[in-house]
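Letters spell out the chain; backbone shape is given numerically. Both lines appear below:
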Amino acid sequence: MRSLFRLFLLLVFVVLVIQFVPSGRDHRNPKTVREIKWNEPDTRTLAGGGCMDCHSNLTNWPWYTSIAPISWLTSRDVEEGRAKLNFSEWQRPQEADLQDVIDVIRAKEMPPLYYRALHAEARLTDTERQQLEAGVVASWKADPPGR
């Protein structure tokens, strides 16, 4: 029992110490340069619930994203997501192409399970996923990135 208590104290100490590591706390959102022209407001709403936190410059940073090590993981996910596909910087070519986006929507790979667990609005029904896919396809084709 005593060693379990010491282990707990060590864990608390480590968690407190890592709070002083400044990494992962820059929660400023870059300016939106040019957002994709969504085919309809419902598509934007569906994308907003499950995509925009990591794939736009409109990231919502909840309080827990300021606590290490969650802050490190969240910042990494947002940086990687914006690098692959950023709906707020539509004037530049995107690393992901339309087929990549369709594939992850159909495979339910995005948003990731851990994100859906914390964000009810990201838990799309099959019908909503189909609507999102159709809306993204229509929006992308009408307004391709990099123009």
Notes: The longest helix spans residues 2-18. The radius of gyration is 18 Å.
